[in-house]
Amino acid sequence: MGRRLHVSLDAEGWLYVAAVVDLFSRRVVGWSMSATMTAQLVTDALEMAIWRRSTPHTVLHHSDRGSQYTSEPFQRFLADHGITCSMSRAGNVWDNAVMESFFSSLKTERTATKMYRTRSQAKADVFDYIECFYNPRRRHSTLGVSQSDGVRNAGGVSVGGYQLNRQQPKTFLGRPNSGRS
Length: 181
Hints:
The chain is an alpha+beta fold. Helix content is about 35%, strand content about 25%. It starts with a strand and ends in a 17-residue tail after the last strand.
């Protein structure tokens, strides 16, 4: 699942953050930060997810209908990598609730109480939150309050929304394709 948000900076404007979350482990498997909100920002986040998890045979990427996700460059990137595109229904924020939850946690647990002087200071703090707290230590109620790293290391390899094993060969970076996109 993919989405993006902005972090307020004291002197340099904004820092835009895009992320891709694995539905099975709730880990942020791809992220990107930039001074501008472009299709390249969300493409870089998905590219990191692919690099970290490799591309399984069947992948579904779910996002909202933001212009970065509907852009021709991002859609071409999905097609070039054999990734099926799924987008939230118009006006339905519940379709992307996992991403909304992650960014809400990032804001309330880290960025809302801080004023960053520089973009690089904000980037370092967001990196620290994702890689040093959220992925390895934060507890998730949907995982039975276990840590996301513990789920990933519990057996098999988590790729996208499901655990890869012999009984379930298909994997997703979003949610199962329920027949609607």
